[in-house]
Write a structure and sequence with these properties.
Length: about 350
């Protein structure tokens, strides 16, 4: 199946273009993920507003307008894809492209949660802090949003002919994976290491050893481990199915940093640059190691090395930015090693040793 054919038509999965469930073409998936980007940017703007506009007191804000209009556009596009297939003679589930079924179910769930969020804000109030991450309506919104956004990833995942996609071919799925990681990290904002500034990193791990640490040190240590999980897991899952193209890890880091810089009001630029540099280095690891389920040793080495590189660069960026190191050497030298061990553990859990 050529890229040109995928751009022009939706082809039936495992059959002709006129029978069976269709597989969305490249252009269809690309439009889906671009509209999903609009959708996601609206949420990023809303997250920025909740963090930086304390006088926010209404459901009807410019940021909500971007967010919900993005949903409307994405939903309308998916429904149009179904209508187009219906017009071509496909009926029932046969009109739903492979991978689009969960999104079709998530659209009404999101709409209902949006109405619920309006009622929540009207009768209970506007969230101003960590409560935004635990609001039941917000959790339904984010869950259904992730199901919608990952549609292009499901399309590519189901195409068994695609094993080693080029970066342009992987782009819709890669953007879907990256925005999903950023949304998960957004709702783990109480343990997000990407929003720390260089100064905050240095201060967090600078404390009197006799005092046994500090609250800020505990917060950063926990955030590193949690953020490592969210940044690494998408790559560990993806390499079980694909040989990722060079640039996939950098794309993930770049999209996640779009969110983190917005939430931090652009005070964490040195941290963001460090994560993007880490993404490039992880792409090199992917190229050299070629980790996969069949190559368990390389898979585990990659998980540990990618984690170590990410946090070694994280601390290097803070040190360069501030011109000094944290006073407690054990913390900033041991954290990358601890993250590497966590990465190794994730790899063992995801791809355990085969039974003999």
């Amino acid at each position: 199946m050529t890229l040109g054919r995928e751009v022009d038509v939706d082809v039936a999965a495992g059959g002709s273009a006129t029978s069976g469930r269709p597989r969305a073409g490249y252009r269809t998936d690309l439009i889906t993920v671009l509209l999903g980007t609009w959708f996601s940017i609206g949420l990023f703007l809303d997250a920025w507003a909740h963090s930086n506009v304390p006088e926010l007191e209404s459901f009807f804000t410019p940021w909500h307008a971007v967010f919900y209009s993005g949903f409307a556009a994405t939903g309308a596009w998916i429904l149009w894809v179904l209508w187009r297939n219906h017009q071509e003679g496909r009926r029932g589930l046969d009109a739903v492209p492979v991978g689009y079924g969960p999104a079709v179910l998530a659209l009404p769930a999101f709409a209902a949660a949006g109405v619920g969020d309006y009622l929540w804000h009207t009768f209970i109030g506007i969230e101003q802090g960590i409560d935004i991450l635990f609001s039941p309506t917000h959790l339904v919104l984010i869950s259904s949003m992730i199901v919608i956004l990952t549609t292009p990833l499901r399309t590519l995942w189901s195409d068994r002919d695609v094993v080693a996609p080029s970066l342009p071919r992987f782009l819709p799925a890669g953007l879907a994976l990256s925005f999903t990681a950023s949304l998960v990290l957004l709702f783990a904002g109480y343990a997000d290491a990407t929003v720390f500034t260089g100064e905050q990193v240095i201060r967090a791990f600078t404390f009197d050893k006799g005092a046994g640490g500090s609250g800020r040190a505990v917060e950063l240590a926990a955030s590193i481990m949690f953020t490592n999980l969210i940044m690494l897991l998408p790559l560990l899952l993806a390499v079980r199915r694909f040989r990722l193209p060079f640039g996939a890890a950098t794309l993930l880091a770049f999209v996640v940093m779009l969110l983190s810089t917005a939430v931090a009001n652009y005070t964490n630029m040195s941290t963001a640059i460090g994560f993007i540099v880490s993404g490039v280095l992880i792409d090199v690891l992917l190229l050299k190691l070629n980790p996969s389920e069949e190559r368990r040793t390389e898979y585990r080495i990659f998980a540990a090395a990618a984690s170590f590189v990410t946090w070694a660069v994280f601390f290097a960026g803070a040190i360069i930015d501030q011109g000094t190191t944290p006073s407690v050497t054990e913390m900033w030298t041991g954290a990358p090693i601890m993250a590497a061990l966590h990465g190794l553990l994730m790899a063992v859990v995801l791809v355990p040793t085969a039974r003999r």
